[in-house]
Here is the input.
Amino acid sequence: MYFERWKKWCIISLMSMKTSDFYYDLPEELIAQHPLDDRSSSRLLVLDKATGKMEHRHFYDIKSYLRPGDVLVVNNTRVIPARLLGVRSETGSPVEVLLLKRIDEKRWETIVRPGKKFKPGHRFTFIPNELEAECEEVLETGNRIMRFDFEGIWEEVLDRAGTMPLPPYIHEKLQDKERYQTVYSKIEGSAAAPTAGLHFTRELLKEIEDMGVETAEVTLHVGLGTFRPVKVEDVESHEMHSEWFCFDEKASSIIRKARAEGRRIISVGTTSTRVLETVASRDPEMMPCSGDTNIFIYPGYEFKCVNCLITNFHLPESTLIMLVSALAGKENILGAYKEAVSMKYRFFSFGDAMFITDL
Here is the structure.
């Protein structure tokens, strides 16, 4: 009888969860506009997920909270220069294309502006005689399927034609494109960086490895949907965006062994978390796999793989603040964010970090 009452209470609680429950006040001046000169010198708020206890350190102090045998799981995706500025070939009027998802060698799903200029059959020029495109299809979402015609190697052409699609809240120009890449980025395909990993340097990773901490790499190509606001008030009604991931044999072997031995799985970023929880939800054995995931993690979710999480500070009312609230509790997270605001932490992609752990 008690279990049934508890279950009913949980269902009612989830049904009443509102997007506005995840709001917090953030002064605009705390939104970081550029990365620090030293990646690892950002501040680090350490949060005990069970008690809400907080400690204030710097990111290079993360070593103090790691243990031999821990597994650090990183997302090795690499951001592509996915923002293309060009003109409509017939009229010369300016257009913008954001690459979202590669379909085949020449075709991409894209976001375009202004939409009225992108109708099937319309052509566009980005570099004359080197990179042009045609709109093939308008999807129900308003996205377009674009077919690109280019001379040479696609990656080299894109590097010349495109720019980094920085988040809309960053207004300063990025001087060094590599600062919007993690030092372990390898697999090209993201439209946005897995920003929790931006705090690591190669030197810090070597020191962590020397402590006896293992590193496992997964891939999730981050789409621009990560910045899409939650437009519904009922959290459960939100339609989560889909992203491609890969969980390979090496990562599977490391993580399965660590779990069997009771060692901690520490996810670097919400993207790595989404990969691990997707795989664990589909297959408790966590065998190698790849595909698309639209997993939506919010309070009430029971974590199946991730024990601790290194992350940045996220936008109010976003799916990302809901994810971290699922791990540490909404009250603990909102309390930590309030503390971070009062102590003038730097927020969002180029901002400071949080380690959600078990102190």
